[in-house]
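RECORD TYPE: inverse folding
INPUT: structure tokens
STRUCTURE:
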């Protein structure tokens, strides 16, 4: 029986291994992590991450060929294939701070693999890492190998949170990069055989190591670039009276461009886009390519601009001050169908409003109060460090209350900011909400999900990203 071990039981490792276990009953899969609380949760009825369809898959295979454990060394030493899916945050200090990936977790995982291995291993990079990390890892492993053969593969993950299980069931492609030696090719084939249980062969692409590593960064940079492109257009739409949804629809009808990933929003978030682009920028700079670095940096700058623009819109519409005013924030996760808040635009928007002394009442169906308080008091780039390495009780931000209902959040509020596109926000009783708010009552829709006309009929002043402006808003320009 082939044995797989995955180091890191997070958003990537957990769902990916659960699906491998489901699709390959003949393979034993162990997911290991240094975090006791995370592993306890994976073994309980309350999984540590919210992901539609995940619970069903885990319950089908847990205890059969899918195991979650903190006994990292035992499972690593027994495995034939080891996936490494530990976090790779942005460095917060030292060389490359604010840009380069912090490979501390990766390096310690690699050293541990070298220490405990007694048989040949295939080591698979699953977390996004800078190009040429595989080479560094290879060096750590071979210099400590005691005669054991380690083959390094890069097998980047393209799943998106909220749709992870579907993405894993039907991937557009699976990418496997490895060495062009006979041993490297053999390792590629072994991993290919795993995926071939459910993925058609022609969708499994094999490349050299560096192409696979760079493809992941490139794919995320291209995706984020589309959002920054449409968000940049949204500012121009507001200035000219065009409607960004109509523009995006018309542009996306060109089959060379395509319709997906053209939704204007308050900004992109998530654990990948910003981190991977910062990484790309750093790699370009290190390779003497400042023009290329600046080109990609702009994608992040436009994203920051979009978040600032949103805050300015809110403040300027409300007579240039939100000081002491209650603002309801609906949605805190970086997108719907996840409880993940890493790099969510809600953090910057809330901090911006708090900077103007607003009182925030936040509701998100999947994010806990503790997480929100942690996010709002955390330093930039600390977000991707495991919770157990963060301060135990962050000082809570006093002007913030977290409630468990949209009606409670909006009661007596002056304005509502919709920051995540949860489906339930589309069907709220907005008349009831309006009746319980201060007047004039504002809705700032950062995800373009509400029916503007209906809300205006009720009496709201409505702002949606990139849409023709209410006359009220036109008279109160948001100067960035
Ligand atoms: C992304 C990539 O899609 C995935 O392939 C990669 O492996 C990891 O990074 P994820 O971050 O989970 O996945 O979510 P994604 O659906 O890409 O959304 C990222 C952000 O962009 C979200 O904040 C989302 O709201 C925003 N977004 C997305 C838009 O603002 N507009 C769009 O049209 C699409
Ligand atoms: P991702 O979104 O990439 O899956 P997460 O932060 O959700 O990232 O998961 C990474 C996991 O890796 C965390 O649960 C963390 O505790 C774990 N981890 C980090 N370093 C190690 C290590 N050396 N051994 C085992 N697990 C580790």
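DESIGNED SEQUENCE:
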């Amino acid at each position: 029986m082939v044995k797989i071990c995955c180091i890191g039981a997070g958003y990537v490792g957990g769902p990916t291994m659960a699906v491998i276990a489901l699709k390959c009953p003949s393979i034993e899969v162990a997911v290991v992590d240094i975090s006791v609380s995370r592993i306890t949760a994976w073994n309980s009825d309350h999984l540590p991450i919210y992901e539609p369809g995940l619970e069903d898959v885990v319950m089908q295979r847990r205890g059969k060929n899918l195991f979650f454990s903190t006994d990292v060394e035992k499972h690593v030493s027994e495995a034939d294939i080891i996936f490494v899916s530990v976090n790779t945050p942005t460095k917060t200090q030292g060389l490359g701070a604010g840009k380069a990936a912090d490979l501390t977790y990766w390096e310690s995982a690699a050293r541990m693999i070298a220490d405990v291995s007694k048989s040949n291993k295939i080591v698979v990079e699953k977390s996004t890492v800078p190009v040429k990390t595989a080479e560094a890892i290879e060096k750590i492993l071979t210099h400590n190998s005691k005669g054991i053969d380690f083959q390094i593969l890069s097998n980047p993950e393209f799943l998106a949170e909220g749709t992870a299980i579907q993405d894993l069931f039907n991937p557009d492609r699976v990418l496997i990069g490895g060495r062009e030696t006979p041993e490297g090719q053999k390792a590629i084939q072994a991993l290919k055989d795993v995926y071939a249980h459910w993925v058609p062969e022609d969708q499994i692409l094999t490349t050299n190591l560096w192409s696979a590593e760079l493809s992941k960064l490139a794919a995320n940079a291209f995706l984020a670039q589309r959002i920054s492109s449409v968000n940049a257009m949204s500012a121009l739409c507001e200035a000219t009276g065009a409607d960004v949804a109509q523009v995006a629809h018309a542009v996306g009808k060109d089959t060379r461009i395509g319709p997906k990933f053209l939704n204007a929003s308050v900004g992109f978030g998530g654990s990948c886009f910003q981190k991977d682009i910062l990484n790309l920028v750093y790699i370009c700079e290190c390779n003497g390519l400042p023009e290329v670095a600046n080109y990609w940096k702009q994608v992040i700058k436009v994203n920051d601009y979009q978040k600032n623009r949103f805050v300015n819109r809110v403040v300027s519409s409300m007579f240039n001050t939100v000081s002491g005013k209650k603002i309801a924030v609906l949605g805190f996760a970086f997108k719907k169908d996840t409880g993940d808040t890493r790099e969510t635009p809600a953090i910057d928007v809330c901090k911006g409003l708090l900077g103007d002394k607003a009182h925030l009442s936040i509701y998100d169906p999947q994010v806990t109060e503790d997480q929100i308080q942690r996010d709002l008091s955390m330093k930039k780039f600390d977000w991707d460090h495991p919770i157990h390495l963060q301060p135990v009780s962050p000082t809570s931000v006093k002007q913030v209350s977290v409630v468990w209902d949209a009606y409670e959040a909006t009661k007596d509020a002056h304005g509502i900011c919709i920051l995540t596109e949860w489906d339930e926000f589309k069907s709220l009783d907005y008349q009831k909400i309006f009746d319980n708010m201060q007047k004039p009552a504002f809705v700032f829709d950062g995800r373009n999900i509400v029916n503007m006309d209906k809300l205006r009929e009720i009496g709201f002043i409505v702002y949606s990203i990139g849409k023709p402006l209410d006359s009220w808003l036109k008279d109160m320009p948001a100067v960035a």
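NOTES: The domain at 243-474 is CATH 3.40.50.720 (Rossmann fold).
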